[in-house]
Amino acid sequence: MARTLLTDDIWQQIQETMRFHGCYCSKNSRNIMEAILWKLRTGATWRDIPEEFCPWKTAYNRFNRWATKGLWDKFFLKLRGSLDQEWVFIDGSYIRVHQHASGARHGFKRAIGKSRGGSTTKIHLATDANGLPIDFKITGGDVHDSQVAEQLIDLVDSADYLIADKGYDAEHIRASARNRKMISIIPLRSNSKRLNPDFDKYLYRLRHLVENAFARLKHFRAIATRFDKLARNYQSMVYIACLFIWCKAK
């Protein structure tokens, strides 16, 4: 008997969201969702999905179709609970890309880059004061955190404090935060000669919350190692993981 993850309460939330977005709900929709979660949790190939859930191709086709339509991010944003945006944390984390993720068709975004660890993808994540995901961006591993910071700030939209490590020590990032009426808690680089009057050591120590969020995401093996060829499919897997983290937190 394959292990399942969906409780009646979580499935009810997901099913209501599916109906809200006009998704087709078949008799075996719950089993199909369990099959997708099994793939997310184990990182195994689609063909290895236990037959007791559904045929593997049924699970893959539904996942891929909804990823193409951009529905997984809509599900996450709909199911995401109330955000505590007194403190917002941003950070990036490298994801090792398996060799099976190579070979995407020309014209499709891959979000794979070369870094010290070889082929990698990077998740740029924003979390709220409880360490729960607000939203994220996917890039190649060769993209520096500071290059995506303003996009994350736009996703966050509003907060009292923006907390990040010294990799985000750049004036354009601080200016972007000020424009959103956020106070930047970002340490200066060692060679910086500027003053940093807003820096708060206590708040900066709370930055472990975003690291904890990455640790929770990487409990899902399909997130910890990337096997998906297309950026949109890997991004959809991350959205499902974030969705599940929120459902468990409610």
Short précis:
It contains 10 helices and 7 strands.
Structure, explained:
The protein has 2 domains: 8-69, no CATH class; 87-227, Nucleotidyltransferase, domain 5 (2-Layer Sandwich). A hairpin with a 2-residue loop joins strand 2 and strand 3 (118-127). The chain is of the alpha/beta class and 250 residues long. Helix content is 42%, strand content 16%. Helix 2 crosses helix 3. Strands 1, 2, 3, 4, 5, 6 and 7 form a 7-stranded mixed β-sheet that branches. The protein has 10 helices and 7 strands.
Strand content: 15-25%
Q: Which CATH class of the largest domain is shown?
A: Alpha Beta
Number of strands: 7
Please, what is the average pLDDT? Answer: 93
Stretches with pLDDT under 50, minimum 5 residues: none
DSSP helix fraction: 40-55%
Largest sheet: 7 strands, mixed
Radius of gyration, in Å, reads 19 Å
SSE inventory with pairings:
Elements: H1 8-20, H2 29-42, H3 56-68, H4 71-79, E1 87-97, E2 113-115, E3 118-127, E4 133-140, H5 149-156, E5 161-163, H6 171-179, E6 183-185, H7 201-205, H8 208-217, H9 221-224, E7 225-226, H10 231-249
Which key features would you list for this structure?
250 residues, alpha/beta, Nucleotidyltransferase, domain 5, 2 domains, seven-stranded mixed sheet, 7 strands, 42% helix, globular
